[in-house]
Amino acid sequence: MLPFALLALAPLTSASSSCDTHPPKPPPLNFHIDLAPTLSTSALVVTPDNPQFSYYTHQNLKSKSPQYSVVVVVATEADVSAAVTFANKHDIPFTAKVSGHGTWAGLGDIKGGMNIWLRNLSSVVVAEDRGHVVVGGGAMVDEVVGRLWEGGKQTATALGQCIGITGSGIGGGLGPLMGVYGLGLDQFVGFRVVLANGTVVSADVETNPDLFWALRGAGHNFGIITEVKLRIYDRKGSSDWSYRQLSFSGDKVEAVFDEINNKRRASPPPPLSEILYQLIDVLQAIIDLRLFSNAFSPSQLEAYAASFLALSPLKNTTTLALDYPGLIAEMGYATAPEGCTPPAGSFGSVFGAAVERHVPAAMRKMYNLFNEVIKTIPELWASYIFVEGYGTEAMRQVPERSTAWAHRVPHGMCWTDGSGINVVLAYKADQMNATLEGIVQKRGEEIRAAKLEGQDRQRSYVNYAVKQESLESMYGYEAWRLEKLRGLKKELDPKNRFGFFAPIF
Ligand SMILES: *[C@@H]1O[C@H](CO)[C@@H](O)[C@H](O)[C@H]1NC(C)=O
Ligand SMILES: *[C@@H]1O[C@H](CO)[C@@H](O)[C@H](O)[C@H]1NC(C)=O
Ligand SMILES: *[C@@H]1O[C@H](CO)[C@@H](O)[C@H](O)[C@H]1NC(C)=O
Ligand SMILES: *[C@@H]1O[C@H](CO)[C@@H](O)[C@H](O)[C@H]1NC(C)=O
């Protein structure tokens, strides 16, 4: 039936479209002529013929890279607004970029898009009250942390240093000072934002309070942040971080996670972070446990670590007293910001989820599957599992409904959502092809399913989500949360222009 209907219609369609009353096709856009004059003189329009184009468009998640036809290196807030207005007028999909660490596979849906390159909005200005800092939307974590450190200050940010402070913050900002000051997003007290229609607004507790609420947890859906004001705090001393590293062979998986559960059950929860890596050592994953705290002295950390030492580590370090930059360097995060931008050798797909507590049997299953994958698929040699556990005290004291971050869960155990487990299956960029990508997706999901055994529900950290995650797992299972977010989205971004990163619809 259908083919005939189409045939019958075809002559009619072609007859009407052959009519020469149609307006002539507009000439193709020339971004240098049509777009550049709408921007400030310091802004730069970069097109694919420019050798620098790949520098600006590099994305860590190589296989899901967006495809851009133009980069706008903005110099002012007004440039961001002009770029958005231009993109809307010409129906060009757009997104904003700082470091290119976004993992969401939907970024790959951008075709012929505009990349609004925020990196140069990187000012860091400590406010007169010395209790806040005003930061440009393109600043990296290490620029803010470094500037604050020099001035005797600190704030809660993600551990990763070469990621954007706003991009990582609006999705949560889990990090090592979360138990002391709250999440990265709990530090945000005011934003300047370019909305989907190019209008610039402020958002804080008094002005646009609903937008202010939504930006802290679901920000990627609502605007491009050109500036944010954060709370800052006096740092304690100069070498006030205690750090210790221990590594264990794979047969200790249950014992190590059992012990972490035991420790975390204390009330109040210990003011300490642990990061575990499972790294590949001669095709055998080892467990690399790093304990660090801003509240424990070295001798307190010694005492804390005693029960882990009793599990016979392969290796252990002495307890170090470090300043924060020293801690970052010791842990291998002190990459210069630009070191994160040029194409790196390998790329990975992340299979993340937060857990309410570790289930040792599930961790065993995950470990075994991971080990099998890296043994049998040599292309995935650079893969790793990354378990983050941070202090949760201050994070839990922030009222649960006060931000769009849905994972405060005050009734949970101390472990709750202080922890994310991320399996990163990594490969050399030049080995990537559709077959390998298919294998990575299939095996990655198997490993993710294994680690979620024994959990009530999946909770996903939006910053590490890749597109398989449900909206509820990212933005909350309480119905009112998604209702409120959808209502705001309808009002502020009805055409879903900000739809390429964990979109609400
Ligand atoms: C962006 O900032 C870098 C580093 O400060 C500078 O070299 C470059 O000229 C800036 N680009 C533009 C277009 O302003
Ligand atoms: C910790 O490391 C030190 C120095 O390598 C070593 O002497 C000690 O035996 C280790 N402790 C345990 C419990 O393995
Ligand atoms: C794709 O990658 C897989 C795994 O590395 C490899 O075995 C296969 O030969 C590659 N296929 C093509 C067509 O390159
Ligand atoms: C842009 O959207 C906002 C929020 O919906 C609205 O208040 C504003 O009037 C819009 N601006 C224009 C120029 O339409």
Automatic annotation (TrEMBL):
Top-level taxon: Eukaryota
Required cofactor names: FAD
Pfam families named in the record: FAD_binding_4 (PF01565)
GO molecular function per UniProt: FAD binding; oxidoreductase activity
Transmembrane segments: none
SUPFAM superfamilies: FAD-binding/transporter-associated domain-like
InterPro entries tied to this protein: FAD-bd_PCMH, FAD-bd_PCMH-like_sf, FAD-bd_PCMH_sub2, FAD-linked_Oxidoreductase, Oxid_FAD_bind_N
The entry's keywords: FAD, Flavoprotein, Oxidoreductase, Signal
Signal peptide as annotated in the record: 1-15
Domain FAD-binding PCMH-type positions: 63-235
PROSITE patterns: FAD_PCMH (PS51387)
Family in the record: Belongs to the oxygen-dependent FAD-linked oxidoreductase family.
Record-given protein name: FAD-binding PCMH-type domain-containing protein
Organism: Schizothecium vesticola
